[in-house]
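Thread title: Can someone regenerate the structure for this chain?

I was given the following input by a collaborator and told the matching structure tokens would be attached. They weren't. Posting the sequence so someone can regenerate them.
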Amino acid sequence: MDDKITTSRLGSFCGRVIEAGWLLALVLVPLFFNPYTQRAFEADKTFICRSLACLMLIAWLVKFLETRNRPLNLRETWQKTPVVFFVGLLGLIFLISSLFSIVPRLSLGGFYLRDEGFITFIAYLVIFFLIWQELKTKKQLHRLLFTIVLVSVPISLYSICQSPPEWLGEGLDPLRWRLGDVRARATSTFGGPIYLAAYLIMVLPITVYLAIRSFAVKNISGTLLGAFYSLIILCQIYGFWVARSRGPMIGLLAAFFFFTLIYGALKRKKMIVVGLITLVLCTGTLLVLLNLPNSPLESTKKHFGFLGRITTTTGEAGRTIQVRKTTWNGALSILRSNPTRLAFGHGLESLFFLYHRHTPPDFARFEGSIAIPDHSHNETFDLLITGGIFGLIVYLFILIMIIYAVFKWLGLIAVTRDRRLFIGLLIGTFGVGLLILALMKNGFTWLGLMIPFTLVTALAIYLIIHVFTRPANAPAEEPDKFLNIHLLLIALISAVLAHFVEVQFLFAVTTTNLYLWAYLAVILGVIPIAALKKTAATDPETSNGPKKKKKKSAAPAAPPAPVFDLTAYLSQFIIYAVLAGLIIGILFFELARLKSFADLNKAIWFFITVWLFSGILIVTKITAREKKSFAWHFNFYLLYLVLSGTLGLAFWSMTSFLLTQLNIHKTVAFALNSHFQMVIFLFLWIAINLFTLAVLFPARSDKTGSTPLVSSGFALKLPFYLILCLAAGVFIYQFNIKRAQADVACRFAVDRAEKKQWDVSLEAYKLSLKLEPKTGKYYDLMQRSYTGQGNFGQAEKKLEEARAVEPLNFFLVKSQARLYRDWSQKIRPPAEREKKLDQAITVYEQLAAMTPLRPSVFLDWAEIYILKKDYQSAVLKYRQALALDESRNLYILLGNTYRQMNKPDETMAAYEKVSRWDVSRSYDLLAPLGQKYFEQKKYEASIRANLILIKFRPENYIPYQNAAVGYDTLNQFATALRYSQKALPLAPPEKKKVVRDFIKQLENKMKKKQGQKKPPPKK
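Best answer:
Regenerated them for you:
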């Protein structure tokens, strides 16, 4: 019996499809955004990621069936790579959590905001599994690493366009963004500055690794390649800088710390470790000094620029800290609310619906009355809530196992003592952290930081101990081996730890999730690659052929020159040219809506810069050791320009043709149909590039014997293959293409609604709902168009349908309450108006039950009672809002209501409370109030108002004089005289005569009054 593993050529091709899939995912997910959809960024990245994962999975299944004698030894896999089983266990836990979720449909398929449901998580795991399975050669590894750096070029350069340095001028961005001022904080292709920074901290270590390896090549091409990598690093750092995000800054510092510390531990460089510890201590001391009140360094904060955002706990930084604490308190409230959910959590994508009920009241004080968190801004809390304790433990265990595997392969865990120290430190630091939280007041607010912080602290302590306890005679690593494998593992684990630290202050997005799981798979794949014999470990970065070992002689003979393989060279070159063409095409697609010549000119210069630089980088990379003439290299560069430019223009031309239908449409359906075709073409173009790359990849030998076109029994397998392909097409269309098309229609409708083209927008919304009838957001937007049209009945119907689809969505209920309020103002008959207001009150009762901790609900509810002129009930609702969170505006509204109720004392008491936040505002409210009460002959109320004003502005003569006038009216002349005498020295020169005359009048009145009360003379 033949025990050889044999794979047909179809199976081998499917293996290459898998590699092409992960390369396209690493390119498209960070780079792509769709300016024609309503969400534009995260959801569209998710759709592409899921589609590629689906195609990769189908290719793997076909390859599996086309491979004969493929070993399925689970015991051996467990012994070699047990972490893979825990990854599968994490997927099982999330499946259980999603099936029993509070919103099972959304937990499985994804919520509208980001579509990060179970299906998306499985896509990450599929990509992880397939990279681990199929990453078998160094050429594959370096294609993957170079692709990561290549796609960072346009992303980094675009961040420079958005927020250029002063010497480049302003206005380099060809797009006009609605997301805020991108010149202040660049967003690049991510839609948010913090997402851009989170991506860059994962790419920077890889770029540094490639730069170091390139400089190690002792020739001109290697030096040039290293210089180009260095230039890319500078662009990445600049992009990170202009994103100005604090969480990723901490992650970047963690990456630098562990990169340096692991390097020092591995190379036994004690001075490096000592210097690093000294730097950390000095930096920590500096931050403490800068954040101390009345610090001697207070005056220097303004010179720190962006770093000033982390050198103060007041202002914006202080607000951010308070927001995080408030959000984490909400997370604790969620965890405590239902102990039965602690094991497996509430389900993926459930946080948005849970935070309605558990967001602390003071959250609105920092983020606004309509804001509700959809994440805890802490990955630990997110995992606890969505996946439960089991989900968090397994996730942390996966990270720890991979870190342990890396340390073990690097020799940092070599003996039983090392293993015991490693595990002991993990347990010990966690126990100490838990004890500290238990002793602190409200300490468990910091639980989400304590768990990851103890893990990171344990790793740092272990490495430091290892440096100073490693035997002095330990053998040093070979330089070449260190550069090829050791440094790569250090870079990968540093990027993983940077991400792990960063997500404790915000949350992971599609790109960073994809890169995390890809990096973990690469780490597991690198270690087996490193175990190959050195004779077979040629350098794919810089060599096209094998090198012979040098002889150990004084004058070794020169090794024979490697045979130049033009076919392999061209194949590698065209692969990168196709990737560059895809990048150029996507950039064309994203900027195709430009209309003005100035913006188009900016876009053209950006395209040219990316196009030319990418070509130089590619040609230099694959010819690092080829001793060819400049003309030879230049000819290949021209070939790159032609090939990549043609591919990019072809994609842009087709999408532009489809999009021109927008300007010449006769009906909304016709225009949107062209947009829908554009979405389909986009996915088809990605599939075409996928299979094109698979064809270009060189065939890889997997210990095969004969290589038939198909395996035996292919006729029986063919129907199954066709069913798999059909299932993949259905999945991609139903869960990705249709959702993208629905969002295209929604964006079209929103644009038309802004122009008050209500009929056109409604027709587009109907298409959105036809494609995605289970998305509450589309119903909500549609009812706004009906409201703008004046068709409140249809608006009410759409909101009822929306609430049926997403009954736990707070915003849909709030929209319905506001709809009834607005509707009541359009109705003339009093009875009908009262009916709508009563309906609004009923909805607010439901809303308050859903989210009892939000002051804004009671504030809006009070407005309904004011419209009904039921001021007593309005006061009650304002009081309920104030019991949750006091604010200046609430007291103003309460005072206004008391004025309507003709209650002077309560009115002035409410206005006086405003002085807690703004004395001037309180003064401005009370000053006219005192005058009005005087005109209404409410003299005592007028006097009280002026006495309060005196407390606010004791230097102002007017309240004293007004109080004196009030007392005079009440015939309390002595008290009036006292206040008027206090007003005299404060009055301006032109008013002193008036005050003196009034004082004389008061004195005369007092004399007259005393004369009237003089007793008769004694007889």
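The CA atoms of residues 145 and 254 lie 21 Å apart.
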